[in-house]
Amino acid sequence: MATLQSLDIRRRSASTEVPPQVRKASVEVAKLIDVSKCIGCKACQAACLAWNDLVQPVGYFDGNYDNPVDLTPTSWTVMKFTEIEKGDDLEWLIRKDGCMHCDDPGCLKACPAPGAIVQYTNGIVDFVSENCIGCGYCVKGCPFDVPRISRVDRKAYKCTLCSDRVAVGQAPACAKACPTQAIYFGSKDDMIVHAEKRIADLKSRGYQKAGLYNPPGVGGTHVMYVLHHADKPSLYAGLPDDPKISPMVGFWKGAMKPISLAVIAFAGVFGFLHYITKGPNEVSDADERKGDELAGGQTNSRGRS
Amino acid sequence: MTNSWNDIKNADVILVMGGNAAEAHPCGFKWVTEAKSNNGAKLVVVDPRFTRSAAVADMYAPLRPGTDIAFLSGVMRYLLANNKIHADYVKAFTNASYIVKEGYGFQDGLFSGYDQARKAYTDRSGWDYEFDEQGMAKVDDTLQHPRCVLNLLKAHVERYTPEMVERICGTPKAKFLQVCELMATTANGERSMTSMYALGWTQHTTGAQNIRSMAMIQLLLGNMGVPGGGVNALRGHANVQGITDLALLSTSTPGYLVLPTDREPTYADYMKSRGFKPIRPGQTSFWQNYPKFFVSQQKAFFGAAATKDNDWAYEYLPKFDASYDTLKIVDMMAAGQMNGLFAQGLNILLAAPDKAKVQSGLAKLKWLVVIDPLETETARFWENHGEFHNANPKSIQTEVIQLPANAFAEDEGSFTNSSRVIQWHWKAADGPGESRSDIQIMSELFSRLRALYAKNGGAYPDPILKLTWNYTNPTNPDPAEVLKEINGYAIEDLPDPADANRVVLRAGQLLPAFAMMRDDGKTAGGCWIYTGVYTEAGNMAMRRDASDPTGKGVHANWGFAWPANRRVLYNRASADASGKPWSERKKYVWWNGTRWTGADVPDYAPTVAPERGVGPFIMNHEGTARLFSRAAMADGPFPEHYEPMDAYIANPLHPKVSTNPITRVFAADAKAFGTPDKFPIVATTYRLTEHFHYWTKSVHGNAVLQPELFVEIGERLAKAKGIKDTDWVEISSQRGTIKAKACVTKRLRPIMVDGKPCDVIGLPIHYGFIGLTRKGYATNVLTPPVGDISVNTPEYKAFLVDVKKTTAPAQPAVA
After folding, report:
1. Rounded distance, CA B455 to CA B459, Å?
2. Best label site of B229, B472, B566, B767, fewest CB within 10 Å?
3. ipTM value
4. Is A60's CB within 8 Å of B708's CB?
5. Which domains does chain B show, CATH number per domain?
6. pTM of the model
7. Are A58 and B56 within 8 A, CB to CB?
């Protein structure tokens, strides 16, 4: 999906080096989703499908307004509806789900394919399909359960924050389509200032715990939410209260990395020495017979006839 | 809309009731979020369901479907009993002080003049004011007279106590009072409340009175004619306001003129009741210009064939004997009284109530022409789609002709939006295949019919042979030419009224304003309220200047708002009797000492000083707005709560007159209504934001976002019936049975009605047996074939059903 140039890349998966950033660092961008203004109309979903030429198959009704029910390789954003009872009153929380574009992206850290996941200097985390090997480690690495592996081409897909649009000074398609201005897009600093105004308004309406969702556990995100109940993000269809990259990713890419390399090296050296000292492995007739028995004789009888 | 979409940003309180703006009007809803975000507005949602609008509301109150008048009358009682009305406004600008005739009365659910045998108000003469010898209405400025409108209104709404509202509507008293208190904060000229409604108010047997109730509240609060106020109909199609303006009703002609009835055989008969003399001293009574608009329209229709000598070709107009609305058409079809039907942009098989009746009617036609950009169920009504649509093609002889039409983006023309703003749209692409524009289809049809009349004659060929059809291309007129004709033009040079030697408009020039229309045949114009949309300066509908110099949401150079590019109707009422704005915050149109000025085009004679006491409601003969509607409404001068025709309870106010006593029920439908013993659950139908009527189920993206019909069921009912999410549910009414997948939700709680829990279920309407979504039952299988008495809008919003768990429908072998 990348349309930004390599010189705009801040980080690159499975690479110790990144291209020299000769240009002036670009402004860090962010999308601000004001949950309190969202009416769940799914215009963002439709715009995402249209802009990215995604063809999501028509599904079935699945018990609520969520459709498709979850993110898919061809649906990079979906609305999640949650009904919450508070005494006599009811709240219908509607959250636009999708990639959060973490400043410290777990997917990128977990990715073993060089250059399959990049983070641009503006903060957008993007998947570069031609480098993707479809291993699914990004799925494990993501604290928000966002990437989806396509069954068609075995590559990982997710929201690009419309990196192609942003590269030419346009807002993401979802922000452009949102009729109630629940989705804002701009510099991350501006979005934080705007969020403060919205939070003050929500507090004046009795939402004392209103706040900004910009979780520090992932270094902050480039997709942020204004929540009426910022003290309980998990109310919003399981938005993680305190997302962190799985320790397995750190372990795998940190301490385990030299150990794994050592194990691989040891296995190679051991195999070589074993071959030199013992020679190749040979199959005896007794082994063949035993093998036939284990296979129930069927393969052989079919083979003979 | 009396106000405009943009004006909603000026509101301090926003009432969404009788609609679900976030769901059905998401783009317009941006002005609600704008008002909340930047004007500190509070959003109140009153709805049987906790909707998408409710999801972002500050306050939500439930009510039982079909009880809006009880709720709103309760609000009126609250405002009057607690003296929370805008007293100066009410006194100066409404008919509160007018004295009503002694003949007026209301008892046991019936207004005076009711004829039990004919089930009609045959004598409505009592629904009027007392008049003096000069024909002027009598008033009592002290508001002490027991029969002055305000006191009659107080007496009428006295029954709607918060306890009675709770009993009828099921709205908890505390919630109801909270809503009342919030509304009352606008009764002062400092703050304003807007009302946004749609089909949730119109689709009832009491539809028009639902809206009148709100209009009365807005008058009591002083919210008509002020920024952020008004009674705002959110129209459901891009151009449904346009079709309404251009004679949607079968009894209208364009510009809300009235088609003659068969009791008005001559022009003199017709005009006898259309003098529109003022009934208070010095009032404008703008409809006195009726003959100018009527004659200009006849000149547009019939050109030189309309002369003073032949009463402007009055005899060419059809004279109606009854309203030929959709319900009537279906009834006549089903009775075998119709040969053919043109369904142009109308999927009547799904769109009219009681599908079985529609289906049987279509099968009795000799021919059916469907003009549509899409394949519709109507065009395929003869096909068998198993459980979803059971038909026997062998038994149907109707010849179906499909004429593929262009979609709006494949043609140019104008849209008129809810704000009354006429906007041009340009062609974006050619239509596929052999599709043609609706204008071309109708023009070619007309040309061929006229040729046949010219050749063969006929019973009465004149109206067709002499119809003006002077377009450059008669079989495919340019939409701009049509808009010019609608706007109107001078037929002869028009002299200046002040100086006969001066010519203000040359023959053939376009009229800049309807004030120039004449009743002497020198002007033509198809729809007087649109005059000004296409002038010698160009096509005003094409204007796209977004500037808003006053910041009040008045984008005067964006398109053209009828009438006269006015964005807020009755805007003179934004100033007090002396012409001063009610407040600095709501300053909008005011008297500057020599003329009326302000943010908008004044809805008033521009140089008439306030001292002359001309009322701001210039369309009324009184000059004031009507809390008491005289005989203008068919079913009463005050609104009254009547149960829906599928009545859930006997009306607690008057059990013997439970439903609207003058509802039109066709003989064929005498047994069409359900009772709560067999159908103990209240149902309502509605739209989903992901779909547009029955169109977008043919669009892949929309089908993805809401793929399949469902029924919303509250948790209590689901538990009682053993229904879980996605279970198949059978829903039956007196009219028929459908199946849908269950959506078990907290958002539909039982409503306590008359002390007992009332379960409400909800059904989205969008599904059928054609398109890209899953096949689904049409919900109009369930809805009753009855409508509002004033405009015959069907009662889709409140009816009785029963539900039970069932099995999946069998998928038909062949689609």
Report:
1. 13
2. B472
3. 0.94
4. yes
5. 6-236 (3.40.228.10), 655-806 (2.40.40.20)
6. 0.94
7. no
